[in-house]
Amino acid sequence: MLDHDPFTFRVIDLKQYVYCPRIFYYQTVLPEVRPLTYKMEEGTIAHQKAEGNEKRRSLRTYGLEQGERLFNLSLYAPQWRLSGQIDLLIETADELIPVDYKASKKESPHHRLQLMAYARLLEAAWPGAAAKKIERGFLYLIPTRTAIPIPFTPALRRQLNQALEKMYQIAYNQHHPDPTPVRGRCVDCEFRRFCNDVD
Fold this sequence. Notes:
By secondary structure, the protein is of the alpha/beta class. About 35% of the residues lie in helices and about 20% in strands. The chain contains five helices and six strands. It has helices at about 10-20, 20-30, 40-55, 110-125, 155-175, and strands spanning about 10, 70-75, 80-90, 95-100, 135-140, 145-150. Strands 1, 2, 3, 4, 5 and 6 form a six-stranded mixed beta sheet that branches. A hairpin with a 4-residue loop joins β5 and β6 (about 145-150). The two termini are about 30 Å apart.
């Protein structure tokens, strides 16, 4: 959460909400209690290595011949109560293409929604965005060095709208949501000690 606006969310908050609404709740209501985990540290290191490799890599990885690369682009869209930092933006003559690095061997639905959120930020806050297409992005899976194209479909856009609205309601009402139905995610969760109703 941004300190100056308790109801502005980061894209990473959206990812955590989709993964488990309670993680989002604890981070929002109890922001001082989250520990830095080994996985977080490893993810940061992996992202830094991926950026270094990206600067030496051809854009053919993304099916492109030409384009300008911008790294770690921070954007804020108050009308969507959303902020975030895009790992990589590829700007071509007629297109803006966000790329999100993932320290994962496979994509997940919450990864796609997070990428859609970066597209929303570009649409709302990037100068000249109205003159360019923002119709797709890429998830770059660091362990497999694979770029997966993600189209920004109407269905994905609706999912983002619904998730942001539910997040706002949780934060505004301080509503304690149900845990994820995928209980295997609870095993190594750093917030498990706050949940009294998961096995």
